[in-house]
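New to this. Please check this fold:
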Amino acid sequence: MSFKKSIYILLIFISFSAKASFILLPMDETTQQNHLKAYGITYWCLDRNYKASWLLNYRGGSFLLPDAEEIRKECKIRGVSFEILSDGEEARILEEISSPSQNMETVVLEKAPKIAVYTPKGKQPWDDAVTLVLTFAEIPFTPIYDEEVLSDQLLLYDWLHLHHEDFTGQYGKFYGAYKNAPWYIEQKKDAEALATKLGYPKVSQEKGAVAKKIRDFVIGGGFMFAMCSATDSFDIALAADGVDICEAMFDGDASDANYQSKMNYNNSFAFKDFILERRPEQYEFSDIDMTSKRRILMDKDYFTLMEFSAKWDPIPSMLCQNHTQLVKGFMGQTTSFDVALIKSNILVMGTCELNGEARYIHGEKGKGMFTFYGGHDPEDFQHQVGDAPTVLDLHPNSPGYRLILNNVLFPAAKKKKQKT
């Protein structure tokens, strides 16, 4: 009896000592079957106060989580590949990462960021790549629009996304092609009614006020991520503060004479010295965008992510985590940025080798940070009005969409003093 009892105790001891302590979500190209949902699992863990670490440049930017039955179960439900690690295996990985010879770093993720998406009421998730991927990854977000922004509700959030928006009051410059389309007429009418309701005589003034509230959100310590036309139209609205750049078909009266000379580039976040597109029928805001200047065939359209030192520059390293450095290009109203018009303090994180255009840039403003990402939908090369929505079940390993989710998780990182 005592012999059996001692064997039983020994078995219990062995089972405890062999018990796994960690879950690794590998993010390399060959192992992870659903990269996008892996971000959702990590967010889910943070939301439940589990500790998590982002292993920069380790197997494509893997996530390290504590071992818990509910985390394993959630990974299985969502189809996310995971590996079970013992204490010893985890220690060996962290030791490898900490070696000065390795361009890797461990970043502790502290809390799930509160996410807001600036989007008009009734907009479908597939109208916007970020709401699409947040929905797919099962990361919760709150849609907000002008009323919420102007009543200082941005203070409730850590992270704000802007997509295919026009902050200049020119209704997306759709006038030339769609001025007689019922949706364009309705959109213009709705925008004017909202501006009036909020106490502004013009849509351009109301949108300018929204842009300034968003600017203040970033200066105060918020994270802002913009794609497509929200990037340049946001900066143009800030530079044109107090100047009428809208022609009569947009706001009922003529634009200011010589408005180009009145631009204040000190007000903009990322861009300088840009020339505005005066023609109302032209589907373009300024020469910041490279869409009409680029001559790149679809099968040659790729951009390269820059390589940063994970230990010395953890912020851009986080934002560039991927299982490939070469990302398929995609178009938008604002596809990419002319590097000659980017301010010198802005970090270019992704460029197209063929023409040197910038696709992915990052900067700081006050206590906060912002990232601008050119293009409309990373898995729809030339998105047209009325096109069918992208089905992310067909693109669970999309490198272009991973860049969006890097920005979503980025505010969760424990703040470390910059070494550079």
Confidence is low (pLDDT under 50) at residues 8-18. The chain has two domains: 2-109, 115-412.
